[in-house]
Specification:
The complex is a heterodimer of chains A (about 110) and B (about 110). With about 110 residues, chain A is an all-beta fold. Chain A contains no helices and 11 strands. At the A-B interface, strand 5, strand 9 and strand 10 of A face strand 5, strand 6, strand 10 and strand 11 of B.
């Protein structure tokens, strides 16, 4: 079984730009969540999607958005990038809520 | 509010020594409990999980964890640490009444001395 695939692995953007990150979950996993990881704040929950519906949302500004497609693939978008958005963005999928997450390797976003 | 506490930010052990990483949670009922490991620049890998039943659970790479309800703890242990165990370790809880939303601890960084 292929794991959780995140693309791209690395990204450099300029302040004010927007970015879209992609996540392909493990086949059969309908739940996809996104996390932001920074040295200062640790792992922070962004949002969770299940069957194309956002089920939970973390405490992030509206510049952070996401969606899930019918094949369970998910994208997250960050608009009007700020320097503080530089982080490792992790996607994770699970079969259903009673299971643990399987994480992707992440997308390292650097905002300059 | 739910919370997960990993009181040790950084731990250093000698190769071959035993290891215990602490995790405490705050939640009214018994949540689902997990330990993950993260190597530099990588995602998180699931080491083990507890849902119910036997309070001592075995995981991959020789790790085990014990759930103690009375102490709201889920400590991770390994009898003999290998140099390759150096990494960041995260405890997480899944809270059933929030659709099993995950809450992560702040992590414990493990250094292994030869």
């Amino acid at each position: 079984k292929a794991g959780v695939t995140q693309t791209p692995r690395y990204l450099i953007k300029t302040r004010g730009q927007q970015v879209t990150l992609s996540c392909s979950p493990i086949s059969g996993h309908r739940s996809v969540s996104w996390y932001q990881q920074t040295p200062g704040q640790g792992l922070q929950f962004l949002f969770e999607y299940f069957s194309e519906t956002q089920r939970n949302k973390g405490n992030f500004p509206g510049r952070f958005s996401g969606r899930q497609f019918s094949n369970s693939r998910s994208e997250m978008n960050v608009s009007t990038l700020e320097l503080g958005d530089s982080a490792l963005y992790l996607c994770a999928s699970r079969q259903d809520p009673s299971y643990g997450y399987t994480f992707g390797s992440g997308t390292r976003l650097t905002v300059v | 509010a739910q919370s997960v506490t990993q009181p040790d930010i950084h731990i250093t052990v000698s190769e071959g020594a035993s290891l215990e990483l602490r995790c405490n949670y705050s939640y009214g009922a018994t949540p689902y409990l997990f330990w993950y490991v993260q190597s530099p620049g990588q995602g998180l890998q699931l080491l083990l999980k507890y849902f119910s039943g036997d309070t001592l659970v075995q995981g991959i790479k020789g790790f085990e964890a014990e759930f103690k309800r009375s102490q709201s703890s889920f400590n991770l242990r390994k009898p003999s640490v290998h140099w390759s165990d150096a990494a960041e370790y995260f405890c997480a809880v899944g809270v059933p009444d929030t659709g099993n939303q995950f809450y992560f601890g702040t992590g414990t960084s493990l250094t292994v001395i030869p």
